[in-house]
Amino acid sequence: MRYSLVQKIASEKLDSKGTANVTVAHYTIHSQVKRQVLGRMSPQLLNQSVSWVIQNLRRHFPRHSVYAAEFDDKDPKCQALIAHILALRTIISQQSIDVENIEDLASLYLDGGIFKWSQGRLELGRELTTSAKELFEIGRVSLFTGSQIYSFGASILSDAGQFDQGLRDFVQALVFSMKYRHELKDSEDEDSLKRADALIANAYHNLAAAHNNFDSIESLRDAAQYNEKALKLKLDLEKRGLPVSHLLCLSYQSMAHTESRLGNLETAAQCFQKALDYGSRSKESAPRRALTLHNFAHLKLQENKLREARELFEDAWGLRAETLDAHPQTATSQHMVAHCWQKLGGEKNLLLSRSDLVKSLRLALLAFLSAVACAAV
Amino acid sequence: MGPTREFLKEYWPPGNQGSIIVTSQDKKWRVSPIIHHSMELLSLEEREGIEVITTYLMRHEVTITREESIEIFAESGGLPLALHQMISFLVAEDLSATDFLRRFRNSRAVDNSEWLTTSPNLATFLSLALTKLQPKAQQLLCHISILDCNSIPEFLLDGSETDDSSQE
Question: Where are the beta strands (DSSP E) in chain A?
Answer without folding.
Answer: 6-14, 21-29
